[in-house]
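Whether sequence alone determines local backbone shape is best considered at the level of individual chains. We regard such an encoding as a compact summary of how the chain folds. The sequence in question and its structure tokens are set out directly beneath this paragraph.
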Amino acid sequence: MFFLFLTHFLLIALPVLADIDRSQFMVGSIFTSDKDESEIAFRTAVDRANILERNVELVPIVVYANTDDSFIMEKMVCNLISQGVIAIFGPSTGSSSDIIASICDTLDIPHIVYDWIPNESIPDREHSTMTLNVHPDNLLLSQGLAEIVQSFAWRSFTVVYETDKELQQLQDILQVGEPSSNPTTVKQLGPDDDHRPFLKEIKLSTDNCLILHCAPDNLLKILQQANELKMLGEYQEPEEVENIWSIMNTTWLSIGSLMGQGCDILPKAASTRLVTGMWWFFALMMLNSYTANLAAFLTNSRQANSINSAEDLAAQSKIKYGAMAGGSTMGFFRDSNFSTYQKMWTAMESASPSVFTKTNDEGVERVQKGKNLYAFLMESTTLEYNVERKCDLVQIGGWLDYKSYGIAMPFNSPYRKQISAAVLKLGELGQLAELKRKWWKEMHGGGNCEKSDEDGGDTPELGLENVGGVFLVLGLGLFAAMVLGCTEFLWNVKSVAIEEKISLKEAFKSEALFAARIWITTKPVHTSSGSGSSTSSSSSSSRSKHSFKSQGLSMKSLKSSGYQDVEASVHSKLKKIGSMFSLKSQKTVTPPPEIGWKLDKSTQIDALPTSDGDLELIPEVETRLPHRHHHHHHHRHHHHHHQPDQEHDGNPSPPE
């Protein structure tokens, strides 16, 4: 079994040559001593490979060294590489294997390690493994897979592994994101072939993202059982994309924002989100300002129009009213024959507590402390004097009665006629009115409340100077959104030009015409002439019109790969970590391969693009001896090329 494995891997390292002459390629090997039985197995495998491959001859270069001395091993490997070896075999023991693997990894040279022990029993030999260390190594491969999972931006996902070895390879993926924001569930497959109970448990957990890491033989069984449980969602490439932001939808969003009701569709692009946010801010400020001004207007109107006359005061019972006890005002209501005044007197007389005061000053103080629930009736002259100096007081209605003041004099006084004539003359000349204005409105704090009445009489209207800042913020936000939108548009034009392999001018013209025709909401997906798949060039604010995706489980295999729609998102990740499934070729200039998995009954086939754009099929390693293969190898010391259309016994070429 060891010879079969070693021979097969040596054949993989051979290039496919079109020349008739038998070319020689050197294979280096490192052993601990000349008595190592692994050397016999290595030489036997080389001889067997030379028999099977007639156009190529492998020349073994065997060296012996102490595998525990890392310095000597480093010199030994560098010496072998300087001789132009195409692969290095061993050593299988010692602590310096990592150094050899690192050097081979850097120079893209296969490193073959096999932990076969000649004296071990057959049951123990089943656990022996062969490792073909190619670029990149397992650590870098694990980091690359973790970056791919991180690019999906899953909120939560479930990791399913088969053995403890696979769990160790998933350590980088388990560390993606924060535990609080990205909860991860880890489960292990059972030993039975029936995984339906296990899959039902995952289905009930409502976790739609699953990372399945298992052997390729078990992968197809698990996916078939998951399909029986209706956990796999269907996917269809959209034939056309639809712009959801039509005139009707944008108008509905604007009206819903003004009414504070929102909208059932929301923008996703940064520019449209900025426009929507600025409009929400504008609507919030304007709506709140209008509401506050309207509330103030209604409050002032209600207070000003509640009590306007003595009839209004008599018709209600909430506001109490009274007068100075024993004064002329009290006598006026008590002796009046007018029905309204009689009703008011009855209400004042029966009120409890008493509404009468000892002095006018006490009545004024009671009005100020009454919180608009007490009115004081007094003479107009005294009332006007207090209202001019105490701005929290207001006179309601006109005079209830009119009486003039007089000067008391003794009977038959000789000065009566002269004083009466002088008073009438002062009234005619307007001097009495001037004196009243002076002492009522100017002296001792009079006239202070006239300006307050003018300023606070009516609620002021909102002017542009009150809300100008809101319009300024809205304008700046719209300008920033336009700049950001133009940047996104140009970036999208560049992406479309690259994907469709057209010029920037053609892509700009096509996208600009679609954006200018606002009445058109759908656009067919472009189809590149250089590829057989359709790609969408829509922005983040577009959604598929004819595609559908059921509420199933999105299952992605880390060992076999995912769907075509994630190729673009992981393309940059794959370029960083190199080719994951083949050795580097100096001739290959095409982009990294599409991630896809296909299973055969005995062989797993991966499709890789060759330098001519065709697909090259790579068979998985089998335990039996392969048929005769012709190999094509690019090396920095030996360059032998074959024509792309040359057939090689009808078998697919091994990986470069």
